[in-house]
Every structure is written in structure tokens, then in C-alpha cells.
Amino acid sequence: MNNGTKRNYVFISLIIATFLTAIEGTIVSTAMPKIVDDLGGSHLYTWVISVYLLTTVISTPVFGKLADLYGRKRMFTIGVLVFLCGSMLSGFSQSMEQLVIFRLIQGIGAGALATIPFTIIGDVFTFEERGKVQGWISSVWGVSGIIGPVTGGLIVDFISWHWIFFMNLPFGLVSLFLLRISLKENLEKKKQLIDYPGMITFSLSMTSFLFALTLLREQGSFTAAAGLLTVTVVLLGAFLFIEAKSKEPMLPLSFFKIPVLVIANTAGFLLGFVLITATFYIPLWVQGVTNLNATFSGIAALPTSVTWLFGALVAGRKLGKTPIGIIVTTGIFFVIAGTFSMVLFKTDTTIPWMMAATALLGFGFGMAFTAFTVAVQSAVEWRMRGAAMGTHNLMKNLGQAIGISLSGLLLSDELKGAALEASLHSVFILLVILSTVAMGISFILFGKRGRNFAVH
Question: Interior CA angle at 427 toward 426 and 431, to 5°?
């Protein structure tokens, strides 16, 4: 097998793995009403989604670091097998309690699928190639956003909701097979040191923090969450102390000395906040303010997935030729334009106007996230690339987890009419502010063409 064929197999393997991660959220959300009808346990409805996100957030940087220590192929294999095991068990669930536990397992494996493919791209492809490859990988998220709800609906209506989990098995096994026959790694034979104390304190701190946000959102009282937030601060302090002393830290504090990583992670956090909030609240506007049905909600949000693909491809073609700061800030400009269009929504705003707003958002996110990912891949050497990508994905995921919780505090308890309209406008104004801050931070990258900071 020649090198060109091997690289093609690697690329196909990563596309499949990314597809499994990207489609998981939309396809499961579509099936949840039917799952609750069959299994009962409606009080655990949100936990099926949130426990998966929680374990993915925690395991993403852990798998990133382990990939640096033990190799991409080995940790990718373990992650995919854990993901497939969780998928299979979820499909066999006989109660909501079982489904929540099995989704937890699936989320642990998803951390590997969410970060290691991006690390492998940085290893296998040159800087000039990474932009194009990353563009295609990013476009998978857009495509998944389109076909996920439709596929989920068809499987639930004509087969069984169990198969939304079983369908992961053949795709995951094909991805594993292609990567194992095509990716060759030369690992140094030595005893590896694993930062167990760091991993444990980080996991506990993130669990405490996300539970605190859940309490804050559900009870609307800071007092209820104060204890958990205090625990979070203490554990994060302990985590940073451990990382400063560790010989192989899960999160190398040296990352905070690399401007490109600091900028990409900070802006990625803010954009993650904007992305998840816009995704959740535009459908709420359609149904709660304009009084249209769920079908129109899907139509209003559809352009995001389509234009994301084009934004990612445009960024991929420009990387290496255009200063990365220009690509990033151009992408965020479209995000600002999209969020500002949302501020202008009125009760009688038409679906085409909403579609125009979501089209701007999708194009902007596609450009910005693609450019940031390539920047992170290229800012560190091989042995640190997994941890760098894990940290970057962690910050984006945290932005989403915090975004959906904090923006919920601004939301009216009345999900209809003028009260909802006023509260959503407050949320949309916040998104404009956060997007503008992200652009201001990204201006620091102006003039950097990529090779200015690329290590390998």
C-alpha cells in the first residue's frame, strides 16, 4: 500500500469517526419522545443528553493527553470501542436509568472521537494540506445537522429507536479497520507517566461545575449552587497545583505561554457559547413568538448546516495563503452579522429573514472554527499536539455547556408571547457582545500567516 493510499484511508477513517460524533446529538434528540414513551422515566429526559455531554467534556482532554503518551492509533481504538460498547448497551436499554448509565459510557468514548482525529490530521498532513482536510472534516458537522433529524425520524418511525444506537456499530468498525491498516506510528519504548491526580481532580471539578449550572438553571437560586461552585473552585485550584508539579501534566501550563493557543481557546469558548445558544433559541423564537410549528423551526435553522460547509471549505482553501487573523476575523464578522440580525427579529419576522440570519452564522462558524483548529494543530510539536487539541475542544465544549445554562437564566418562565420575546432579545444582545469580544481577541492574530507559528 503506497503512502497516497494510506493517507486516503486515514482521511476516510477520520471522516467516519467525525460523522458518528456529529450526528449523535441530533439523531438522539429526535428519538427522545419515542424513547420516553417506551421506557417511561420522563424526569430523566434531559439526563440522557446532559450526561453524554458531561462525560464527553471530561474525557476529551484526557484522551488528548493519552494520545500523546501512548499513540494516536491505540487511544483512538480504545475510544471507539468504548463508544461502540456504550452505543450497543444503549440500544439494549430496558429503562431510562439504564439508558442514562449507558450514555455515560458512550460519552466517555466520544471524547476520543471528538479530539484524536484532529490530532491525527496534524500528524499526517502538511500545513498547506491541513486547511483543506480540516475544511472537509468540519463540513461533516454541517451535513450531519441536515441528515441527523431526518435519519432519526425515519429510523424511529419505520424501524425502532434502538437502531439509532445500533447503526453506530458498522460505521465505527469500518473506521477502526481503515485506521489500523493505514496509520503507522513510531513510539518511543519507555515507561509512561500518567497524570492520574490531575485527571481525577479535573473530572471532579467539571462534574461539580456542570451540576452547579444545572441547579442554577432549574432552581433559579444562586444559594442552591453555591456549595457546588465552592467545591469547583477548590478542585480547580488543586488541579492547577498538580499540573504545575506533574512531569507529564494532562494540561501543560506552558500552553498559557503560547499566544496562538490562548487566543484560539478563549475565542473558541466564546463562539461555543454563541453557537449553542443560537441553535437552541432560534427554534424557540419560531414556535413561542411567531407561533409557527416545529417544522418551520427546522426550516429556519437549516441554512446553518449548509453554509457551515461552505465556510469551512473557504477557510481550508485560504489557509497558508492568507494571514490566519484575516480568515478568523472574517468568519467572526459573519457571526456578528448573524447575531445582530437576530436582535432585529420581531413578532412578524418571516422565515426567510431567519434563514438569512442562520446562513450568516453557519458560514462564520465554518470559517472561524476551521482556522482555529488548524492554528492549534500547527502551534505545538507532535508530543504536545494531542493535549493541545484536547484542551481546545474542551474550551469549545465548555462554552456550549456554560452557554446553555447561563443564557437560560435570562429566559422568561413564560415560553409564549411578549415576555418570551423580550427575554430572547436580551439573549440575542448578549450573543452580539460575546461575538464582538471574540473578534477583538482574534485581532491579535493579524499578520500571522501560519508558518509564523507552525512547529511541524
Answer: 115
